[in-house]
Write a structure and sequence with these properties.
This protein is α+β, with helices and mostly antiparallel strands. The chain is built from three helices and six strands, in the order ααββαββββ. The longest helix is centred in the first third of the chain and has 31 residues.
Length: 151
Amino acid sequence: MSDISEAIARLERVETELALRRAAQQYCVAGDLRDLDLWRGVWTPDAVWELSPDMVFTGIEAICDTVERQWQMFPAMSHGTVNLDVDVETATGRSDVIVHIQLQDTTWVTGGATYLDEYRRHEGAWRIARRTVTRTFNVGPIPDWGPPGAR
């Protein structure tokens, strides 16, 4: 293999890794911004979103309907993706997430999960083909910890 061929192969690998990472991160951005067009662009048309063993949504329409129901239930959400690791060879990834969710009564709760992803190219872009969510912890309402009168 020539030096140019090796450089091209390395560049393609780096570009793929960055694209896989971007797909994983855009999931959180789209969800938090409630951007349905961006959300739709995160997934392959036949994607599977497994929130638990008994909550599995297949296909982009079911996935979009589900996130829209979440947006109606929760006035605000904020996801923080950490420990993101992708494997270019298998087009898979794993990440942890800390999510803060505002409830209808304006109480905030915090939870955490692990995302296991499978990616696939669709229309020239890497997208999530399957995301399996494993909840790792939930924390009840966050107590008011500020000094008296501070709000």
